[in-house]
Design brief:
The structure holds two protein chains of two kinds.
Chain A (H helix, E strand, L loop, with lengths): L3 H38 L1 H17 L7 H4 L6 E7 L9 H18 L3 E7 L4 H7 L4 E5 L9 H16 L5 E9 L5 E9 L17 E3 L2 H75 L1
Parallel strand pairs in A: 1-2, 1-4, 2-3
Antiparallel strand pairs in A: 4-5
Chain B lengths: L2 E6 L4 E7 L1 E6 L2 E5 L6 E5 L2 E6 L7 E13 L2 E10 L1
Parallel strand pairs in B: 1-8
Antiparallel strand pairs in B: 1-2, 3-4, 3-6, 5-7, 6-7, 7-8
The chains are: A alpha/beta, B mainly beta.
Amino acid sequence: MASLKELKGRITSVKSTQKITKAKQMVAAAKLRKAQARAEAARPYAERLTAVMASLASKVGGENAPRLLAGTGSEKRHLLVVVNTDKGLCGGLNSNIVRAASAKARELVAAGKDVELYLVGRKGRAPLKRNFPELIGANYDTSQVREPGFEEAEQIASEVIGMFEDGKFDVAHLVYPIFKSALAQDPTVQQIVPVPAPEAAASDDAGAVVEYEPGEEEILEELLPRYVKTQIFGALLEIAASEQGASMTAMDNATRNAGDLIQKLTIQYNRSRQAAITTELVEIIAGAEAL
Amino acid sequence: MALHFELVTPAKLVRSEDVHMVVVPGSEGEFGVLEGHAPFMSTIRDGAVQVYKTAGSAPEEIMVQGGFAEVGDAGLTVLAEHVSE
């Protein structure tokens, strides 16, 4: 049985751990609200862009479609853009993303495709490197910025599109979590290149002939990279919200566990203290009786 | 007579209001949009969007970078990547 002093030390150390997890939980709760607001603020842009894309893509079909929309014609080489967080203490979020990415990579490899991984965020690097040491390509570091924003999304997108134009891959997928609630973040795999043709708006208001300047194709050509950027930006916002949400839940659990542990240790501490007192008394009484 | 004008960036909805006229720096020249404009879509070059709140008032200038403008039944929507006021 542990001595009284040891028990006391353990209680103090668990208490200070609890303080840390509690603080992290509150910080995450505050940041979550902000991250959610940012994610919501980004929605109008994405919606409008998708609507415009849909109406344009249905007009510019066939062989004059830009390569970003039509693809290279082959499906051999795949690029997986995996978005992870930079910091830990967020429960199973990163391992879930890594698992989703690994499953997709294995599936593609099994289908005889070439796979390359492009990693965003620090936390996915080590486990993915362990799983697929030969597939890791470039990675993008977001750990230097506090809140990954549109600029980072722009840089990632231009790098990915650059790789596409150099013919380094045929299809790109984005792996990121969709923030549902603080309890649930679903890792998703989404194709970003070639841009999946959005479904055309249900009722294309007939009669209204839209004029284009300079022309449909030119506009579409400019729109597609922007669409990829928006998708990546959306993923960055989702990961930010997911990170805070997952962190809040994980830290809440940790705080509660620490509380339980403290209670158990305190009971144990009191019991051994009483046992020590009893032993001492018995000794004194026994000594007095012996006289 | 009012034109519904929306200016949207990836980060937020910058403007959503009824105005008199907006002059947009299209890539093939500036164009003004009044209410009832025919459906129209254009890419824009970096420059200032001029918003006339009422006829004859001094325009408010908003610098935009990279994007495009769409005129439809709902009014004018400018999607820009960067906006500085």
